[in-house]
Each structure stands twice: as structure tokens, then as C-alpha cells.
Amino acid sequence: MEEITDGVNAINLGAESHKKNRIQVSNTKKPLFFYVNLAKRYMQQNDEVELSALGMAIATVVTVAEILKNNGFAVEKKITTSTVDIKDDSRGRPVQKAKIEIVLGKTENFDELMAADAEEREIGDEEQG
């Protein structure tokens, strides 16, 4: 797992990695809905979000994208797959890792859905309080 994190960190050094709307997903660090909610916030601010992952985290990215699409928040704009060379210290040679990037855009009723979500949370908070 550490080599994946190291690889993601190495990729971050590229010039285009300073995109404000990119989420690099790890399959160990955060729960699935952390990424779903983060992607919604990014889409609120930027109209689109790019989800990116390496190796085993690819399944998490695809799941996050499908949740957002199936619930009407996002439409798929672009999917890119590639392989990247990751330096593996334990083996002393580069290892190829699969990489995926999924760009999602807001749906027409995104703002309405977000407002409904916020309203549901407020009602839930009142019931608990």
C-alpha cells in the first residue's frame, strides 16, 4: 500500500496536478461517502470534478462516480485510463500501476438535489436535538 501512496505523491509533482477540482482517491484512507460528499462540494464550486486513482483504488473511484451518476448529481464527461511507473523501493525497480481519471459534470438539477440534501440533513439534526 505504501508504494501506491508514494506513487500518488510523485504524480502530484506534475504541473497539471494543481487543478482545484481533482480528488485523488485512496482505497484505505477515507470511507466511500467521504469522497462522494467531497465530489459534490467540488462540483458546487467548479461545475465539474476529476476523480483520480491508482491500482486497487480504481474500484473506489468507479463506485463514487456511479453513486453520483445514479443519484442524479453527475454526468460522465470523460474517462481516461493509463499505466504509470511507480518506484517500488522493496523491489528496486519501477512497477507499473493502472491509473484512471473520471471527469464528472453537474446535472441540470444538481442544485435542486443539493438543496434537498441540505434540507434532509437539517430535519435529521432537529430530530436528534
Automatic annotation (TrEMBL):
DNA/RNA-binding protein Alba-like domain span: 21-81
Alphabetized InterPro entries for the sequence: Alba-like_dom_sf, DNA/RNA-bd_Alba-like, UCP030333_Alba
GO function terms (MF aspect): RNA binding
Superkingdom assignment: Eukaryota
GO annotations of cellular component type: nucleus
Matches recorded under Gene3D superfamilies: Alba-like domain
Entry-linked Pfam families: Alba (PF01918)
PANTHER family: ALBA DNA_RNA-BINDING PROTEIN, DNA/RNA-BINDING PROTEIN ALBA 3
Record's protein name: DNA/RNA-binding protein Alba-like domain-containing protein
Organism whose genome encodes this protein: Crotalaria pallida (Smooth rattlebox)
